[in-house]
Amino acid sequence: MPATVRDVIEADLRGFLAPLLNRAALLDACVAVSGICAANPASTRLRERPGFGPAGTLREIGFKSGCWRDLIIMQGHEGGSVLAAGAGS
């Protein structure tokens, strides 16, 4: 079955996220933090898979495509799956 554009993009982002989280674990990082535009639910889902959870929202923090955008802050802790196992790799 051929991959969709969405599948290719998500695989590429996972390929970026996994080594980054693995490197953070090797450096004994205890938390990883990610900021995502609230208008991009696919990015939120991508970070939920390895165990990131919501930490807060910055309202109307950025202006893009003619409107103000909220920024969702997500974090994962060493005790969870984020840094313990990388990004699901």
The profile of the biggest β sheet is: 3 strands, antiparallel
CATH superfamily: Gcn5-related N-acetyltransferase (GNAT)
What is the CATH topology assignment?
Aminopeptidase
Number of domains: 1
Distance between the termini: 23 Å
Query: Which secondary-structure class do the elements indicate?
Result: alpha+beta
Name of the top-level CATH class:
Alpha Beta
Spatial order of the strands forming the largest sheet: 1-3-2
General form: globular
Count, helices? 3
What does this 3D model show about the protein?
By secondary structure, this protein is an alpha+beta fold. It has three helices and three strands. It starts with a helix and ends in a 5-residue tail after the last helix. It is 38% helix and 34% strand. The chain has a single domain, classed as Gcn5-related N-acetyltransferase (GNAT) (Aminopeptidase).
Task: Write a compact overview of the structure shown.
The chain is α+β, with helices and mostly antiparallel strands.
Topology, please?
Layout: H1 5-26, E1 31-37, H2 41-48, E2 53-64, E3 67-77, H3 81-84
From the structure above, extract its key features.
34% strand, three-stranded antiparallel sheet, single chain, alpha+beta, 89 residues, Aminopeptidase, 3 helices
